[in-house]
Amino acid sequence: MHELVTVLEEFGYTWFSLDRAYEGLTYRPDGVVHVVVDSSVIFVEVDERGHDPLHPSYTPLKEQTRMKALKDVAMRNGKVSVVFIRVNTGRLSEVLPQQVETVREVLASIHSSKPKGYHVNYVDYRDDHVHVLESEKKESGIDSVKKFHTENFDEKVRRIRASDLR
Q1: 125, 89 in Cβ contact below 8 A?
Q2: Is the CB of residue 162 less than 8 Å from the CB of residue 95?
Q3: Cβ burial 124-159 (10 Å sphere, 16+ → b, else e)
Q4: Rounded distance, CA 76 to CA 74, Å?
Q5: N or C: which end of the chain has fewer CB atoms below 10 A?
């Protein structure tokens, strides 16, 4: 998270690390910081497990419910915009430098456009990932879902996974 926090500070954002609660709402994050920007809040999440559908703790409904609950609490507290940036590290323990650059680009876009509503930005998730597909459904209530792919990230993850199998 340190590299991502540094990027947040570059934009002048005040960030807070979430371990167990947000405004009294408890949940189990993979690793989350949240940023208050004027009347908006940005949640930056590091997803070390890639939200693997085969992992026993993962269900798309549980993830959508958690994100919606965070959004609802932020909106009740007067925020006009809630944005998630979800970074898939492909089961690695750290965010790669190339991914930090991708997040910097996403933050620059958010910073300049100041979106209103509920938005999710996926960094390095496959387009057909179950969580991305759930977010794109009409009933999810998300105003926009954007996907960003860090150059060469997928190939590196494939090589790491192949070496794990040996």
Answers
A1: no
A2: no
A3: bbeeebbbbebbeeeebebeebebbebeebeeebee
A4: 5
A5: C
